[in-house]
């Protein structure tokens, strides 16, 4: 890693700190990073820190050594606008899109550039404590509590205490088990008109809610009542794939057509094909 790469990471870190509100909050939201590390890096005291530390920070704040460029696909432009409008109006919305439609990358960009935006990306192995700890960490809180009721109380209290109503973005919400979905009911009840909540998922989540309601599963009527305003993504187009290619410096028309065909209009697949093409052609 060159000094230039390290400087880019520090520059991104400064943006990240501004988004989080303070150096301490930024450090608290980064895994394996202390406030002292953040302070030293900002002050140019890089010598004590290994390349691994720079990589660790860079990976968490959006730095890529491959200089991957975000591009405004049709869905990206619309979702960025919808998230900002939802935040301004303290709305509760559920965004649905196919796998590989760019949901996660779009919300990462929004959260990295928007003050008072808290984003978590769910995983299937999470339990109740992990879910709440992840939210607290993204809020810049190194939580001293180890009990679920106290953690939940702290999240609600802090979200209500923002000077400007925040937005809580829960990506890949379909990966959460039923016991974790019940937390969403409390979030809605406690934060209505005080905090925007945006859920993102594949279309399976809508089916899961509707099936749960039909089968009279506990909590599903309440979930659908609160989170049943669905916003559908547009189908990713060949033009979107071409835009992604061009944004990464791939301009050869034949190569773009090949990537469009092989990716089947899946941006995740297209990204991998672009990465391989750039490696093979030293771009």
UniProtKB/TrEMBL annotation:
GO molecular function: ATP hydrolysis activity; DNA binding
Entries under Gene3D superfamilies matching the protein: lambda repressor-like DNA-binding domains, P-loop containing nucleotide triphosphate hydrolases
Domain ORC1/DEAH AAA+ ATPase, first and last residues per copy: 88-208
InterPro entries in UniProt: AAA_22, ExeA_AAA_ATPase_DNA-bind, Lambda_DNA-bd_dom_sf, P-loop_NTPase
Species of origin: Pseudotamlana carrageenivorans
Designated name of the protein: ATPase
